[in-house]
Amino acid sequence: MSEALQVMLWPLVACLVLPGLLIYLGLHIIRRGIIFVDLALAQVAALGTCVAVLLHHDAHDWQTFAWSGAFTLIGAAIFTFTRPREKHVPQEALIGIVYVVAAAAGLLLLSRSPEGNEELRKSLVGDVLLIRPAEIAGAAGIFALIGLVHFIFRRQFLAISHAREGERPLNLKIWWWDFLFYTLFGVVVTVIVHLFGVLLTFSFLIIPAVCANLLVRALAWQLALGWVLAALASGAGMVASYQLDLPTGAATVVTLGLALLLTGLASRLLPRRPPA
User: pLDDT digits over 98-121, tens only?
Assistant: First the structure.
């Protein structure tokens, strides 16, 4: 096995296996028009990690995961019960406020820690090269369970995500299904932020979903295309990271951004699609 493959094998496996569910959730987020909710929840999860670090817990301790999960659950409740019935204050504004406050609070907490700067960098860009097989297996198991819940209740989740403003689809209790959606979403974010960092998590959630929406309409095709784009961009980012001695997470984010640029150009050249 070459040196490059030894270094990049498990990070590459993580980037091939784990983004599948993220892309599916990203398609929901785009439909709901709350693009930055994943970034806000990721920052809230990182805030929980900051609290754990301040209490002298290691990044891999269960207490760190518990603090991060608890903060994310609070964030899920906030986004559920601030869903606007009218458009006087769009929810995206509230999401931005949560992100800014959580980021500022994290900076304040880490200013009290001797390792604050390093922890802040890790919370943003992660440390993909240090991902271990057990972490990938654990995250994949959790994602499989969450994916099963989404499959069982796909009719309810899709109905709410595709509903127009003011509609009450399928006579559902929207607040309950929203809370379940955001709670499951928060669990995913909590798990993945510890592995990928905030920036790479946001990129995997949104960029492949946006690319797929630019090219195809059917959900199954969007999932497949999003996964292929994520896999190709991850591979290219890791090759560039190894060859140019760059931070792997940041290189992958930039590569995903370039993939979005190329996809946007390609969508301009394709025939116009009929409206959904």
Answer: 888 988 888 888 777 666 666 666
The closest alpha carbon to 199, from 67, 58, 42, belongs to 42
Which two three-digit tokens encode residue 215?
Answer: 């090219």
Give which of 54, 206, 158 is closest to 115, Cα–Cα.
54
Asked if 176 contacts 229 with a C-beta cutoff of 8 angstroms, the reply is no
- Alpha-carbon gap, residue 205 to 249, rounded angstroms: 14
SS3 content of the chain, % helix, strand, coil (to 5): 80, 0, 20
CATH class label, 3-269 = mainly alpha
Q: Are 122 and 64 in contact (CB under 8 A)?
A: no
Cβ–Cβ contacts within 10 Å for residue 166, how many? 8
Whether the CB-CB separation of 124 and 103 falls below 8 Å is answered with no
Residue holding tokens 């040196």? 3
Q: Using CA atoms, how far apart are residues 131 and 127, in angstroms rounded to an integer?
A: 7
Q: Provide the terminal-to-terminal Cα distance of the chain, rounded to the nearest Å.
A: 48
Give the global pTM: 0.80
Longest dimension (CA), the chain: 59
Q: Which residues contact 11 (CB under 8 A, 6 or more apart)?
A: 128, 129, 131, 238, 248
Report CA-CA distances (Å) from 2 to 158, 204, 237: 45, 28, 18
**Residue 138, C-beta contacts closer than 8 angstroms, at least 6 positions apart:** 191
What pLDDT digit, counting tens, does each position of 225-261 carry? 999 999 999 889 888 888 888 888 888 999 999 999 9
The CA-atom distances, in angstroms, between 276 and each of 213, 215, 217 are: 11, 12, 7
Closest residue by Cα to residue 157 from 141, 139, 142, 179: 179
